[in-house]
Sequence to fold (204 residues):
Amino acid sequence: MTELELLKEHWSKQDDFQVVSREELHKMIKKSSSNILKWLIAANIFELSFFLLLPFIFSSDANVSIKNPIIIKVTYILDYLLVSLPIIFSIVYLYLISNIHTTDSISLLLKNIFRARKLLNVYIILNVCIFLIILYTGIFEALNSDRIAQPTGVSAFTYNIIVVLSCIFVGVIFMLIIWSFYKLIYGRLLKKLNKNYKELKDLE
Fold:
């Protein structure tokens, strides 16, 4: 066998290796992306369970005592959103998982991963907005509540400032806990999706 034939054989082996590596990497990214979406569904189920258990953990007296009709409507809407959002997004994730499993095209896989990333960002933003509305609603209700007696010798202005600052403090602590949860769970999953997306881009 001549040197040229040996070189051609070597090139042929290299090409085969590249094709196999490309296909294997594609399969690994598919599997990884599918697993990430499954973890997102698990996180949504946990979140849904938490919100469904809240009425049993906390007394419902606070909701009963609310007299403002606007606050009552807002509370019902927020309760509905907190329960329905995890269900809706989980259904969409299941649809994306099905798409990822059935596609062999890199461009379609990229499209599905891009949708999953965008969907996750929307989900996080919606939840943060809901919790901010809960915070402002809580402040408004606290300022207009008859259950909190104004201490004697304290002016109405000072009392309102104390109530607002207290609500903000509790709200900030609550938001930090929620943000830490999202960053720990959803942030890590989003980072992995971004990594898969970049690796697929390199394969194109």
The helical segments are 3-57, 61-64, 69-102, 106-143, 156-203. The two ends are 36 Å apart (CA to CA).
